[in-house]
């Protein structure tokens, strides 16, 4: 991991329609997004120069903003193009792309009707989210104290920055206790997701995953469910209670950053990464990587 802080790197960042030098992509301390959490973002990956599900991500960005009551002043097509331009101008082939939209400084206070909606898009080569060896062998997860909130408590279908407050607290607690991540339950005590990824389980060759009714229905989640179905695996979305975890043989998490990552432990429960996890990991890698040119490979 590079030790250069994220605000001091080389390259360019797309900001409100212009490419600005990386260290100059700044916002003022009196920004509504910073004070009141009026900001939404995306995490997108590119493999071999090709951005995976770019438009789906930027549609979700628009949708997330709408849920928070603001409209991003750039179309999905314009944001798609800006993401491609940022990659190209930074000379990136493997990339993590981070669009973020936030309310600006024109008003301070809970009411922010007249604030400018800003959009910035950065991109960098992020590598693997978890240690590559752990991704195969299985990460260890704690069980979080904070719960994914009731949709009446927070805009749970929006990828809004405020929803990550409890994720960072739980991720830090888990890391301090020697784990890689934490499993979050929801407000009803049902299994929900990891701090930045969705979760799947395997029992008797069948895949089970919680119904995403109070957390993100991840783009990776849906891709992996399609890959599983294409392999003939049954995938059941349902309520999963934590005391069922002892019945599952395999467990994995999915997300743009985490990709498909095996899980070996959740609190007292143990899993053995097996055929289904490995198959879906490989199928996902094949799906996101552009096919090598036939001429180049003969
Ligand atoms: N849940 C949370 C809390 C996340 O941060 C992410 C990553 N965006 C996901 C699920 C998975 O979403 P996706 O597959 O669309 O990246």
The termini sit apart by: 35 Å
The helix/strand order is EEHEEEHHEEHEHEEEEHEEEEHH
Largest sheet: 9 strands, mixed
What is the percent of helical residues?
25-40%
So how many helices?
A: 8
| Shape, principal axes of CA atoms | globular
What is the total tally of β strands? 16
Mean pLDDT: 96
Bound molecules: 4'-deoxy-4'-aminopyridoxal-5'-phosphate
**The number of domains:** 2
CATH topology of the largest domain: D-amino Acid Aminotransferase, Chain A, domain 2
- What is the SS-derived class? alpha+beta
Radius of gyration, taken over Cα atoms and rounded to an integer in Å? 20 Å
Uncertain stretches of 5 or more adjacent residues: 293-298
What is the CATH architecture term of the largest domain?
Alpha-Beta Barrel
CATH class of the largest domain: Alpha Beta
Strand content: 25-35%
CATH homology-level superfamily of the largest domain: D-amino Acid Aminotransferase, subunit A, domain 2
Summarize the structure.
The chain has eight helices and 16 strands. It is of the alpha+beta class and 298 residues long. β1 and β2 form a beta hairpin.
